[in-house]
Amino acid sequence: MTPIHYTIIPARPEAHLYRVTCTVADPDPSGQRFALPAWVPGSYMIRDFARHVVSIRAASRNRAVAIEKLDKHTWRAEPVAGPLAVTCEVYAWDLSVRGAHLDARHAFFNGACVFVRVLGQETAPCELEIVRPGGARYRNWRVATAMARKGAKPYGFGTYLASDYDELIDHPVEMGEFTLASFRAGGVPHDIVITGRHAADTRRLQRDLERLCGHHMRFFGRPAPMKRYVFLVTAVGEGYGGLEHRASTALLCSREDLPREGEVGVSERYRTFLGLASHEYFHTWNVKRIKPAAFVPYDLDRENYTALLWAFEGITSYYDDLALVRCGLIEKKDYLELLGRSITTHLRTPGRARQSLAESSFDAWIKYYRQDENSPNAIVSYYVKGSLVALCLDLLIRDKTRGRKSLDDLMRALWRRHGLTGPGLEEDGIERLAEEVTGVKLGRYFDDWLRSTRELPLKALLATSGVEMELRPAESGEDKGGKPARSKNAAGLAMLGIRVRTQGDDSAVTHVLEGGAAQEAGVAAGDVIVAVDGLRPGRGGVDPVLANRQPGESATIHAFRRDEMMTFEVRLKRADADTCVLAESAGARARLRERWLRPRRV
Ligand SMILES: [Zn+2]
Question: How far is the CA of 280 from the centre of ligand 1 (A)?
């Protein structure tokens, strides 16, 4: 097939406009159709990227060709003998990892936001010419992408090559004056590209990511899935996000999450960054290659439903932090703290009694990705609960096989059967393969953990691997769990059962939790609390005002609902024991715990 030729130029950085041209040598003789994706793989929400197309025109041999719009994201050009070129101006002012961004500082885009798909020629190879913007201020810009070069010099503007449209949109591109560091892991060259103001110790990042990537490579074994890998990192004041691709990842982080020169040990913030990098890197195997059959191929026009997101996001979330302890970047106690926090997050989600994990996966498009004030009461996260089901599965298999088998064996089997060879995973595929690989009957566990809202047997299963789980009430609004109580007489706070956002000295209610004291008294999301027992909450929120109150006592709340003043008499409740602390236990199970968590060969 003749390659499809794309050109992208950051034409007007000050107006955030890219100019993108797609040239087709052999257009459909009945009128070539073009479409932009409705979503970007990895982020399960309809985003309708076509809304950022501000103009489109078509031409053939310098002659204008009529082009009409057929639906929200599809166009058809009038029949021509060819070649046919379509040129769009695309507005790009979204700094998220799923979007496209352009200003005079730098440019970043996902192909799904900017490149039209040539309908009927999706499998044709694609050439991409990336053009330097005009003007002296762009003289030092370079290009970072995992896309193969065809003529372009390393990190240079020029021509790149993708084997088809699916690959074209799976290599995000960064342009600008970025920091670059490189290393090899598993024989594969890796780049770390950092955009934005930062003071990171790049040698440290290089060393730590090399260790982490080497660990993941050894976990799945050779051959490596990619020839080259790029971490595209954007550092901002406050931000967090990641999107996985076949040979790269885009990460958004706070510059404070990156390690500074001379910093020793792994700070909580750096641990967050390492966990994110580990998560997206694990996806190179789990979801970019081991995929649900529902994604083969992706239907970019609409929602792609699967009940398996728990396996792709949840299992990946389980291994992201586990890899940090296994490769020796963090200590066992740090890992148990992180796990304790995940369990705490899960236990503080009343929606776990309403939505099963399979339902959470299936409805990701309209629920997890479109959260509102009632979400904590209505949904469960396929990331958080998914990672806890992965934990339960791992511990159960280890216990039933006396440590001979584990979730690791299932992951490697998935890689050999589905990742390396390609067939998508059927909806019941992982359950069948898990039984086959481990020899353990797992049917009723999967029914309970995936398709019901029964509580997970976390305490019992952790005990089988020598970890003791305790639950206590939260000590304050900042208490995320994972650590023992600071004071011995933590009998429990009196709780309102709300989440708030401070708004000056007032507190705006963002969520009213199911069964909580505030819900019973009639407080609603959106109410702005101006007084608790006659006192203004202040910048610390409502927690400190209630610090000395006892469960069972009453409190009077004054709040504005829109412009109307409301008064609520709230009967305070005792805080639930929903804060999890994990500790290694002494005894015969230590051997299994070591097999599970001990550092692997590095
Ligand atoms: Zn993920």
Answer: 6
